[in-house]
Every structure is written in C-alpha cells, then in structure tokens.
Amino acid sequence: MPALSVALLNLKPGTGKTTSAVWLAHIFAQAGRTVLLVDADPSGSALEWSDLAAMDPGLPPRMAFPFRMVALPSRSLHQRVAEIAHPEDVVIIDAPQLEDHAGIARSAMRYVDEILIPCAPSPIEINRTTPVRDEINEVEAFRGGPARASVLLNRCIARAHSTTSAREVLEGLGYDVLRTAVPRREVYAQSFGVPIPEIGRDVWRGVAHDLIERCVPLGKVPS
Ligand SMILES: Nc1ncnc2c1ncn2[C@@H]1O[C@H](COP(=O)(O)OP(=O)(O)O)[C@@H](O)[C@H]1O
Ligand SMILES: [Mg+2]
After folding, report:
1. What is the pLDDT of residues 178-197, one digit of tens each?
2. What contacts 28, CB < 8 A, 6 or more positions away?
C-alpha cells in the first residue's frame, strides 16, 4: 500500500482534474515525497503536459516533471497501480470523466484512499456532484469499506460570496469540503504544457496539507 493515494474525479471534463493532479504531484515531490502520477484519462492530457514541459529549454531533461509518471487508462487500474506503486509513494490519479469512462473511473475509485472531487462554486457543478456520490456509494461494495471522499473548491472568484455559500451547500449535502479553496487564477489557467512555476504553489501546499491531515487517524491529531 502506498503512503497516500488520491484520485481526482468528476462527472464531466473541464472541472480541474488534470490541473489539480499535476500541481499536487509537484507539491508532494517538492516536499520530498516520491510521487507516482497516473494518467488514467484516455485523452492523455497529463502525459501530454509532461511531454510538452520536458521540451522547455530552461530545464535539464527529466526535471520538468520530477517524478514517475504512467499512462493507465484501464479498467484494471486498481490491480495495475497496486503492482507498480512503491510503499512510500504518494499516488495521484488523474481519472477520466465518469460520464464517458465509468469503468476506468470506478477502477480508480476502488484503489484510492481518497476521492477528490474538484468543483467550481456554481450551482451547476454542485448539482453534478450527485452522480459522483452515487458512484462512490456503489463502489463501496468492491472496496470492502467506504471510500474517503472530499470536494475541492476550485476556480473560486476572489472575494466573492459564492465560495462560502458553495461550501455551506456542499456541507449541507453531507460532503467533506477541503479547507483550502483554489482561486481562479491566470497562473493555473496558463500552466498546461509548461513546467510548474514557483508562483501559485502555496495554495496547492494548503490542499496537500488538508489531504494529509485527513489521513491522520482520529486521536492522533497533533495539538
Ligand atoms: N484554479 C484554476 N484557475 C484558473 N483556471 C483553471 C483552474 N483550474 C483549472 N483551470 C482551467 O480549467 C480548464 C479545465 O481544467 P482541467 O484541469 O483540464 O480539467 P479536467 O481535467 O477536469 O478536464 C483548463 O483550461 C485549466 O487551465
Ligand atoms: Mg483532464
């Protein structure tokens, strides 16, 4: 079993799965963890991002994405990742949208410690989390226990009330919502295909911290 495994998952494309997976992978690697980034989306965007970033002339070869990466758009992902992940790894899975690739997405849900649902603070995206939650419940039977799941508020408008109210609505629906909300920022919107810059990492450090905190068994939270 790896140290931590997280799948970025949602019903639709365009909610920030790949962006979140790639930034988080960099944050964990920079913090000294060994990372395995799994591109489970048949569109292969995370892999394409890494290929493009590797061509950056400003960086030595293989330094743009300084961790292991594998493309596994497979319904047997849960078995394949278990074979290749090392015990000390943080495994991040960029899962495909459930509506088109349910078999692969379910396989990712079977494997991971935490299912992370990136969601904009808008009524339409909040509504679309319901089918994801139904799937999470369905997959429980194959996991031999409930999956930990949380919502990552993403593409939040600075100083708008929508983030607070989305959090309230989601918590009212029974979701855990990560404390850190990711703002809508140009640095994230423009990051595809290039090495991850230093600017903008702080927010993702907050997200990584929230994820790790959720791993600490109850009663062992440092005071
Ligand atoms: N926090 C953010 N701020 C600004 N743009 C974002 C943010 N998160 C994602 N995006 C942009 O939204 C679009 C969809 O994100 P992406 O990660 O590709 O979604 P998915 O993998 O779910 O299809 C991309 O253009 C991406 O750059
Ligand atoms: Mg994607």
Report:
1. 999 999 999 999 999 999 99
2. 35, 67, 90, 92, 208
What's the 85 CA to ligand 2 centre distance in angstroms? Answer: 22
Please report which ligand is nearest the Cα atom of 22: 1
* Main-chain phi, psi angles of 169, to 5 degrees: -65, -45
Domains of the chain with CATH codes: 4-213 (3.40.50.300)
Distance, CA of 87 to CA of 82 (rounded, Å): 10
Range 55-72 burial, b when 16+ CB lie within 10 A, else e: eeeeeeeeebbebbbebb
Name the E strands within 86-144: 89-94, 114-119
Does residue 157 line the site of ligand 1, with CB under 6 A? no
Q: Is the pTM of this model over 0.85?
A: yes
Whether ligand 1 lies within 6 angstroms of the CB of 13 is answered as yes
Answer for the pair 216, 209: CB distance below 8 angstroms, yes or no: no
pLDDT digits (tens, 9 = 90+) for 77-95: 999 999 999 999 999 999 9
